[in-house]
Amino acid sequence: MAMNGSQHGASGIQEQLERAREETSYLRGELGQIGDALRVLGEKQAALARAEVREQLSQSGKVAALGAAALVFGSIAMVFVSLTIMFVLWVALPMWAAGLVTTVLLVAASALTGLMAYRHFKGVSPMPKRTAASLREDVTWVKQQLNLNGR
C-alpha cells in the first residue's frame, strides 16, 4: 500500500508539473503577444511624434518667413512714416522737439509690437502634445491590463 500511495503522489506531482508547463507555455504566448503589441504601439507613437514635430516645424518656418518679410517692409515704411510725422510736427514745434516726439512714438510702437510677437511666440511649442497625451493614456492602459492579468 505504501507503494500505491507513493505512486499516487508521484502522479499528482506529475500532473501539477504538466499543468505548470502548460501555464508557463500559455504565459509565454501571452507575454509574446503583449510584447508585440507594445512594439507596434511604440512604433505608432514614434510615427505620431515625428509627424507632429514636422507639423510644428513647418508652422514655425512659415511664421519666421512671414515675420522676416514683414520686418523688411515695415522697416522701410517706418522710415518714411517717421520722417512724415517729424516734418508735420516741425510746422508747430522746433525741429528738436519734433524729432523727440517722433522718437517717443516709435519706441512705444516698437514695445507694443514686441509684446505682441512675444505672446504669439509662446503659442508655438516644440513638444508634441498630442503624442505625450497618447503615451500617458497608453501607460495607464498597460497598467490596467497588468493589474487585470495579475488577478
Instruction: Encode the helix/strand succession as letters.
Output: HHH
Give the mean pLDDT: 85
* Proportion in helices: over 70%
Described by the principal axes of the CA atoms, the overall outline is rod-shaped
User: Count of helices?
Assistant: 3
Number of strands: 0
Q: Which class do the helix and strand fractions yield?
A: mainly alpha
Beta percentage is under 5%
Largest sheet: none
Q: How much is the radius of gyration in Å?
A: 36 Å
Rounded to the nearest angstrom, the distance between the terminal CA atoms is 40 Å
Regions with little confidence, pLDDT below 50 for 5+ residues: none
Question: Please, how many domains?
Answer: 1
Verbal overview:
There is one protein chain. This protein has one domain (2-150). The chain is rod-shaped, with a radius of gyration of 36 Å. The mean pLDDT is 85. It is 93% helix and 0% strand. The protein contains 3 helices and no strands. With 151 residues, the protein is mostly helical. The longest helix is centred in the first third of the chain and has 91 residues, at 2-92.
Short description:
By secondary structure, the protein is mainly alpha-helical.
Layout of secondary structure:
Blueprint lengths: L1 H91 L2 H28 L6 H22 L1
Helix pairs in contact: 1-2, 1-3
Features:
mainly alpha
